[in-house]
Design a protein that fits this description.
The chain contains 19 helices and 30 strands. The protein is an alpha/beta fold. It folds into 4 domains: 100 residues, GIY-YIG endonuclease (3-Layer(aba) Sandwich), CATH 3.40.1440; 190 residues, P-loop containing nucleotide triphosphate hydrolases (Rossmann fold); 179 residues, Rossmann fold (3-Layer(aba) Sandwich), CATH 3.40.50.300; 87 residues, Alpha-Beta Plaits, CATH 3.30.70.600. The mean pLDDT is 90. Bound molecules: adenosine-5'-diphosphate (ADP) and zinc ion (ZN) (2 copies).
Length: 653
C-alpha cells in the first residue's frame, strides 16, 4: 500500500497542523476522522505534504468524510490570514466556521432555502441613495471598501436591497453580516419582502440542522443572499460578488473567545481576496472606519435625508444636580413619561445596569459587601433576593443586619432596572411597566411574550438595558429617557466616549420612528461637558474629528495599532513575573515599538484569578513583525500563568 502523507488541521494549539497518512490523496478542505492522543476527532485535510523533509512516525487517517472539499480555497485563504494576523491556530479557525453537526462529523444535509416575495418598493429612491448605489455598482468585480454613513431611517437598508437586486441580476451572491442574532430575522424579512431571490440565515441561534443546511446551500451556490452574525463570515459562498456589513461599529463583531478576530476587519480581507466591493454601514462609524474614509482609503457615501422618518427627534439634557432623581428618575423625566402615556404612546427608560441596586451599604458605619473572588461589589437583586457578582456569577443571600456594626441599617445605593421598574409601578399603577434585561428574558421566548403589549401599541413603559438599544422598531414609542448619562463620560476605556455616542444614537433611533414626534431626555450630572454639545449637535463627523484629535494626542488607535497580552493566574506575583519575561523579549528586538506595563488589568482580581497586562503599540507592520519575532505561541501558557493575545483589542479589559 502506498503511503501518502497529509497535513491535517485539528482543533487546539497545533499551529501548523499535524501529520497523518492515508492510502490515497485527500483533497484540502475535506473532513477526516483521526486519532489524537486517545481521542478520535474530526479534522480538516490541508492536502498532501510535498516536501522531502523527513516526516516523523504518523498515524493513519481513520475515515474520509466528504467526497469533495467543504472548506474552499477562499476560506482557507481567509482563515490563513486570520491565523497569521491574530496568531490563532488555523485548525480552530477552520473548524469554527463549520456548523456544529458538520464539526462533529455528521454527513452533509440537503440544502434548504426560502424564496422572497418580490413586492415592489413603491417609492422613488432619493438622490443620495441613487448616488450610493451607482458608486458601489460601478465597483462590481473589483475590490473597494465603502462607508455608507447615515442615521437610522436614512434608507441604508433600502440601498442594501437595491444592491442585492442588482447582484441577483448578475447572478452574483451577497453576504450580509449583522451584529446580533436578534437582527438577522428583521433584515431577512425586509429583504425578502422585496426580492425575488433565495435567502438563508446563519447564526448560532438556529438549530444545528438548519444551520448546516444553510451552509451547504451557500457553498453550492443555491442561495442569492446569506445573512448571518460574525461566524457566518467563514461560510464558503459560490460566486460571492458583494459583502455588506450592517452597524459596522458594533463591538459584537469582535470575537471575544478563542481567536480574537474582528469579523468586520476580516470581511474587508475577504472582499480584497475575492476582489469584490464591500460596504460598511453605520450612523456612527467606528473611528477606524471613519478615519480610513477621511483619508480616502475607503469611499464615503452619505445619506443625510431621512425619507422614511416623519420628524426628527428632540434631544434634551436634564441636569440631575438640580432636578434630583427619585426612584432613578428626575421630575422632568417622570413628567415626560406621563405625557407620552396620556397621549396614548409609549416610553422607554434606558439603563445599562440590571438588578436592583449596584451597591448595598450600611447607613450607619459605611460597610459594603465585596465579592470573595473579584475586586467588585456584588449587585443587589430583589427577586430573587441576592447579592450577585456579575463578574464571576457568585451569589449569596444579602445580610439582614450589618455584619460590621450589627445594626439593621442596610440600604440600597443607586439604581438598577429592577428598582427603576419598581418605582415606576408605584407612580403609574394603571400602566404596564415592562422590564427587559438579561434576568427577565433568560427563558426562551420570554422576550417575545414580554414585548407583546408594546407591539400591540398599548400605552406602557419599557425599562431596559442594552438589549433594547439595538434595532427594534416600536411604532408607538415616542419618548426615551437615558437614566444614566454620566456612565459613558466617566468610563475609563479609551473608547468610552465613542461607544457612548454610538449607544446614544442608537437609543435615540428608537424614539419617534413613525408618525410621532420623538423625544429623548438624558439625565446627567455633567450637562456642560463639551462632549455633550458635540454629541447633541447630531453631526457625527464633527464628533469623530474631535475624538480622532484626542486619540492622536494620547497615541491611541486609530492613530496607532495596539496588541494586548493578558496573563492570568491564581497568584498575582507569577503573572507579573511572566509578563516581565515577555516584556524582555520585546525589548531585545530593539525596535521603536512601545511597550507599556506590565500593569494590573482594570479589574485585577476577577473570578478567583489575578490579571495583568502588557500593551504593545506601534505601526501595524512593526507590531506584526514584533509579535512574530518573539514567537507568539509561547504566550499561551507559562507554568500556571495562562496568556491571551488580543491584536487590535476593542477594549482593554
Ligand atoms: P435605515 O436602514 O437607514 O434605518 P431604511 O432603509 O430602513 O433606513 O429606511 C427607513 C424607512 O424609510 C423604511 O420604512 C423604508 O422603506 C423607507 N424608505 C427608504 N428609502 C426611501 C425612499 N427613497 N423614499 C421613501 N421611503 C423610503
Ligand atoms: Zn454597619
Ligand atoms: Zn465576583
Amino acid at each position: 500500500m502506498p503511503r501518502i502523507f497529509l497535513k491535517i488541521f485539528v482543533p487546539g494549539p497545533f499551529h501548523d497542523g499535524l501529520h497523518y497518512h492515508f492510502s490515497t490523496n485527500v483533497a484540502a478542505g475535506v473532513r477526516v476522522r483521526v486519532q489524537l492522543g486517545t481521542r478520535e476527532i474530526i479534522g480538516i485535510s490541508g492536502g498532501k505534504i510535498e516536501s522531502d523533509a523527513k516526516i516523523p512516525e504518523t498515524k493513519p487517517i481513520l475515515e474520509v468524510l466528504d467526497d469533495e472539499p467543504i472548506i474552499t480555497n477562499e476560506i482557507f485563504a481567509l482563515a490563513g490570514f486570520a491565523s497569521d494576523y491574530y496568531m490563532a491556530p488555523l485548525g480552530d479557525l477552520l473548524l469554527s466556521g463549520l456548523p456544529n453537526t458538520l464539526r462533529k462529523g455528521k454527513p452533509l444535509p440537503k440544502p434548504k432555502t426560502n424564496t422572497g416575495l418580490a413586492k415592489p418598493r413603491g417609492y422613488q429612491l432619493t438622490n443620495e441613495q441613487n448616488v450610493a448605489i451607482e458608486c458601489i455598482d460601478s465597483s462590481t468585480g473589483q475590490f473597494n471598501c465603502f462607508l455608507l454613513q447615515g442615521v437610522t431611517g436614512s434608507g441604508k437598508t433600502q440601498v442594501f436591497s437595491e444592491l442585492i437586486a442588482h447582484s441577483i441580476a448578475r447572478k452574483q451572491k451577497v453576504l450580509i453580516l449583522v451584529p446580533e442574532i436578534g437582527l438577522t430575522g428583521q433584515m431577512a424579512d425586509r429583504i425578502q419582502a422585496q426580492l425575488k431571490g433565495i435567502l438563508s440565515v446563519s447564526h448560532s441561534g438556529l438549530s444545528d440542522g438548519d444551520r448546516s443546511r444553510a451552509f451547504v446551500a451557500a457553498k453550492d451556490g443555491l442561495i442569492d443572499v446569506l445573512i448571518g452574525t460574525r461566524s457566518a463570515l467563514f461560510t464558503p459562498i459560490k460566486q460571492l460578488g458583494l459583502i455588506l456589513v450592517d452597524e459596522e461599529h458594533d463591538s459584537a463583531y469582535k470575537n471575544q473567545e478563542g481567536a480574537r478576530y474582528s469579523a468586520r476587519d476580516l470581511s474587508i480581507i475577504r472582499a480584497k481576496q475575492a476582489n469584490i466591493p464591500i460596504v460598511l454601514s453605520s450612523a456612527t462609524p467606528s473611528l477606524e472606519t471613519w478615519q480610513a474614509a477621511q483619508q480616502g482609503r475607503y469611499r464615503k457615501l452619505i445619506l443625510k435625508e431621512r425619507p422614511g422618518a416623519a420628524t426628527s427627534t428632540k434631544i434634551e439634557l436634564i441636569d440631575s444636580r438640580r432636578d434630583k432623581p427619585v426612584g432613578g428618575l428626575t421630575q422632568t423625566a417622570r413628567q415626560a413619561i406621563i405625557r407620552a402615556l396620556e397621549n396614548g404612546q409609549q416610553a422607554l427608560v434606558f439603563l445599562n445596569r440590571r438588578g436592583y441596586a449596584p451597591v448595598m451599604m450600611c447607613a450607619d458605619c459605611g460597610w459594603t459587601p465585596v465579592c470573595k473572588h473579584c475586586d467588585a461589589k456584588p449587585t443587589l437583586h430583589r427577586s430573587p433576593n441576592l447579592l450577585w457578582c456579575h463578574h464571576c456569577d457568585n451569589k449569596s443571600r444579602p445580610p439582614l443586619i450589618c455584619p460590621a456594626c450589627s445594626k439593621s441599617t442596610l440600604i440600597a445605593i443607586g439604581h438598577g432596572t429592577e428598582r427603576v421598574a419598581e418605582a415606576l409601578t408605584q407612580i403609574l399603577p394603571e400602566f404596564p411597566i415592562i422590564r427587559i434585561d438579561r434576568d427577565t428574558t433568560a427563558r426562551r421566548r420570554s422576550f417575545k411574550t414580554l414585548i407583546e403589549p408594546v407591539i400591540e401599541g398599548k400605552p406602557c413603559v419599557l425599562v431596559g438595558t442594552q438589549m433594547l438599544a439595538k434595532g427594534h422598531d416600536f411604532k408607538h414609542l415616542s419618548t426615551v429617557i437615558v437614566a444614566d448619562g454620566d456612565q459613558g463620560l466617566l468610563g475609563a476605556d479609551f473608547r468610552s466616549i465613542e461607544h457612548f455616542s454610538q449607544l446614544l444614537t442608537q437609543v435615540t433611533g428608537r424614539a419617534g420612528r413613525h408618525q410621532n414626534q420623538g423625544y429623548v431626555y438624558i439625565q446627567t450630572h455633567r450637562p456642560d461637558s463639551h462632549w455633550f454639545s458635540l454629541i447633541l449637535a447630531n453631526q457625527y463627523d464633527t464628533l469623530a474629528a474631535a475624538l480622532v484629535k484626542e486619540r492622536i494626542q494620547f497615541k491611541w488607535p486609530p492613530t496607532t495599532h495596539i496588541a494586548l497580552i493578558t496573563g492570568r493566574s491564581g497568584n498575582p506575583g507569577s503573572v507579573f513575573a511572566a509578563l516581565d519575561q515577555i516584556k524582555l523579549t520585546f525589548k531585545q528586538l530593539n525596535s521603536s515599538l512601545q511597550i507599556l506595563g506590565p500593569a494590573p488589568s482594570p479589574m485585577e482580581h476577577r473570578n478567583r484569578q489575578y490579571h495583568g497586562q502588557l500593551l504593545l503599540a506601534g505601526p501595524r507592520q512593526l507590531l506584526q513583525w514584533a509579535l512574530k519575532e518573539t514567537g507568539p505561541w509561547a504566550y499561551r501558557r507559562q507554568g500556571k500563568v495562562v496568556f491571551q493575545l488580543d491584536v487590535d483589542p476593542w477594549d482593554l479589559w
